[in-house]
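Subject: Protein record for review, amino acid sequence with backbone structure tokens
How to read it: Take the token row as a discrete description of the fold.
Enclosed: The protein record, placed directly beneath this head.
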Amino acid sequence: PEAFQRLPPNVRGVLASELARTGIEGQSYERTPEDGGPALFVYYGPALLQHCTNLKEMSAALRTLAAVYHAARVLWPLRFDQGAFHAVTLDAAALKANAGALVAGRGGGDGSIMVLEKRSGVEGVVRLVTVSGLNELVQIG
């Protein structure tokens, strides 16, 4: 709770809103009612948090998780229509595999960066890419 409370309000807001979405129309949590969809499920997100051993690392991990949610919301905008109520699974195994470097603020640790790639309407993946790999992603759109 302490690491969460110390986050900037905008980061806390992203985490609170996205973690409260269920992906089921008409369903919400009493204390944090959030409407719209799709819900974003960050697979391996909890594993990123498990690597933390102190408040600084937990804050960095929570910011990383919020960044994933923020990027996902660009790729899967919040909607309120009938087709919006489903879940999008985001495979974040790369975050788990590189947790030490991420929570230390070193990105991928070797000059590479994490990107979120949309695979379909219901699936995305966080990948570690080099600068040339990023250029390739930009070229193919």
